[in-house]
Design brief:
The protein is of the alpha+beta class. Helices cover 25% and strands 44% of the residues. Strands 8-7-6-5-9 form a five-stranded antiparallel β-sheet. A four-stranded mixed β-sheet has the order 1-2-3-4.
Length: 151
């Protein structure tokens, strides 16, 4: 799944925040059930299934009226989970020091998949330490990113 278009972010964010939740991000892509819009929300004490259902009801009706997605799609609202997705510079800055997985939209130095320690954010790039080597990767070239859960 890829980051949802900015038009969806701009529409969804105020709906979620007006319901007193943190809007973590949105992705859009093909899933087993077809085209799927995933909305990630969080709260100070996490979120429950009821919280997700509440946001889903509000967004479902509003998205249908706005018609931002052509054709049929499935709406999923969930917590970001322990393998929290990272969407932008603020997320990468906030979670520096964590182990992350990245998938690049286009191969960098012959590879698309990276797993390593998120060291820092420099300008519009992240610095990822993989096997003792620093890799500077442009955020705009990242297709998907998430924290690696530790148990």
């Amino acid at each position: 799944m890829r980051r949802a278009p900015d038009s969806i972010w701009k529409f969804v964010a105020p709906v979620v925040t007006n319901l007193d939740y943190e809007f973590v991000g949105a992705s859009l892509g093909q899933a087993e059930s077809g085209l799927t819009l995933r909305i990630y929300i969080d709260g100070p004490d996490g979120v429950t299934v009821d919280d997700c259902a509440k946001v889903s009801r509000q967004l479902g009706d509003a998205l249908d009226v706005e018609n931002l997605i052509a054709g049929e799609y499935c709406l999923e609202v969930s917590s970001p989970g322990v393998d929290r997705p990272l969407f932008g510079i603020d997320d990468f800055t906030r979670f520096a020091g964590n182990e992350v997985k990245l998938k690049m939209a286009v191969a960098q130095d012959g590879r698309r998949n990276y797993r390593g320690m998120l060291d820092s954010v420099v300008d519009q790039s992240v610095v990822l330490k993989v096997d003792g080597e620093d890799h500077e990767l442009r955020i705009s070239d990242i297709e998907s990113a998430s924290i690696v859960a530790r148990f």
